[in-house]
Structure formats: C-alpha cells, structure tokens
Automatic annotation (TrEMBL):
InterPro entries: Ankyrin_rpt, Ankyrin_rpt-contain_sf, GFRP_sf
Organism: Thrips palmi
ANK repeats: 135-167, 169-201
Superkingdom of this protein's organism: Eukaryota
PANTHER family: ANKYRIN REPEAT DOMAIN-CONTAINING PROTEIN 39, ANKYRIN REPEAT DOMAIN-CONTAINING PROTEIN 39-RELATED
TM helices/strands, residue ranges: none
UniProt record, GO biological process: negative regulation of biosynthetic process
Gene from which this protein is expressed: LOC117639684
Protein name stated in the entry: Ankyrin repeat domain-containing protein 39
Matches recorded under SMART domains: ANK (SM00248)
Family matches, as Pfam families: Ank_2, Ank_4
Keywords per UniProt: ANK repeat, Repeat
Length: 248
C-alpha cells in the first residue's frame, strides 16, 4: 500500500519567541499546547505556538516530520512533511509520540531517571509535586521504583504525599519499591511515615510484593515491623508464599 503524507507549515522570524503553525489537527494542537504553555491563540487557518520557530520545528521533527522547503528572509515559512503507513492512523501515532515527548519533559521522568537538577528545576517552576502522568503515576512512584532516595527525599520535602496511590491498582510508593526489591528505599519510606500496612486493589501487601521481588531480606524486614502481614491473605485468599515464609 502507498504511503500517506501529512504536511504542516511553521511561519515566524528566527528571533521571535512565537510562531504560527498551520495544518495541525486538534489533538496535535492540544498536545503542543502542553509542551508550550500559553499557546493555541487562533490565527487564520492556524494556531500561535509560544515557542521559537526552530524549537517548534525540532519538536515536530521528533514526531516524524521533516523540513522539505522554506521561503522568506525576515519572516520565514517552513513546510514540513511526515510519511506514515496507511494502517496507522495519524491521530494514534501523533498521540503516542506526543505523550512520550510530554513524559520525557515531566517531573515524573526526571524522578525516574534520578536527575536531581531537573527535579529541582520543576519544583522551582511550581510543578505540582503530586501530579499524575497519563499512566496514572506520580513522581514519587517513579523515584521509589528506581530506589532514588535523594529524589524521594527532595519530593517529600516539597510536599509529596508519601502514601499517594496510582490511579490504577491503588499502589503506594512503598508497594512499588517493595515490588522492585529496593530495600534501602523501603526503609527510608517507612522511616518517613509510609503506611507499611497499605494494600493495593488486589489486597496485596508489601510482604506479597517483597516476595515477588525475590528480596527475602526485605520480606524479613517488613515482617519484623508488621508481623501480621506474614499470614495476611490478599483478596483471592492467597497468603504470602508459605514455602518462602517458613524460612523466615
């Protein structure tokens, strides 16, 4: 099957802090508006994006567009083209890619990667420390999963909810850390007041999740501070593995 081509145009001066973009569909406009705040002012057949033309063009190139022509000297118009398979709808491809771009610029991504400087930048800008991403996770979930104690400490110091739950599964940061076997992170969160007896939507405790991680030292730690979890079943009536527990 023949490829399908989509075109957009970017118009603006190289020295300008905004530009006009033509040919975007509503989902692209909405997504770019999140990447470039205060955008989306309507112009004839287009939209004003609050970002330098080259920055906007680079963002569009990350979505698969490429510059195929440009005209003008002081005010330049760039034409960009994107080729895609007919079997993949433009909206689906755009949404997935823009979601990825948005996540990579988020506080959650900085927490996931352990990038202290970027986390601090977000906090200085006033980013909500308990904000959820499109996957339903808050920044502290990512820091806990990866064992980034310095990031977790920074988030908590700036108002992060230590027991915040994921939108799906109702998992706390401590449960995330336990499933990943991050013993130092688990102990840090407990010391900071995390609810060691919290369970997820399946009724699984930190002991269930610690066993899943294979970190028996961590399981032993949880049982030492909450002995009842040793035999507490989940919603399916399944208690933590008796084979493993018998050795603790």
């Amino acid at each position: 099957m023949a490829s399908v081509f989509y075109y957009v145009a970017v118009k603006g001066a190289l020295s300008s802090n905004d530009c006009d973009v033509f040919g975007l569909d509503p989902e692209e406009i909405s997504a770019l508006g999140k990447l470039f705040p205060n955008s989306k002012t309507q112009v004839n057949n287009g939209v004003v994006i609050k970002g330098p033309p080259i920055t906007v063009i680079n963002t569009l190139c990350q979505l698969g567009y490429k510059v195929v022509s440009s005209t003008g000297e002081i005010e330049i118009t760039w034409t960009l083209q994107r080729e895609t398979s007919p079997s993949l709808k433009k909206k689906e491809k755009t949404k997935n890619t823009l979601d990825e771009l948005e996540f990579e610029r988020s506080l959650g991504y900085a927490a996931l990667c352990g990038e202290v400087d970027k986390v601090e930048q977000h906090l200085r800008k006033g980013t909500n420390v308990n904000c959820y991403d499109s996957g339903g996770y808050a920044p502290l979930h990512y820091a806990a999963r990866k064992g980034h104690i310095d990031i977790a400490h920074l988030l908590l110091r700036n108002g992060a909810d230590i027991n915040i739950r994921t939108r799906a599964g109702k998992v706390t940061p401590l449960l995330r850390a336990a499933y990943s076997g991050k013993e130092k992170m688990c102990k840090f969160l407990v010391e900071k007041g995390a609810d060691v007896r919290a369970v997820d939507d399946d009724g699984q405790s930190v002991v269930h999740r610690g066993i899943s991680s294979g970190n028996l030292s961590l399981v032993k730690y949880f049982i030492s501070i909450a002995p009842e979890l040793k035999t507490q079943p989940d919603k399916r009536g399944q208690a933590p593995s008796e084979v493993v527990i018998s050795d603790l």
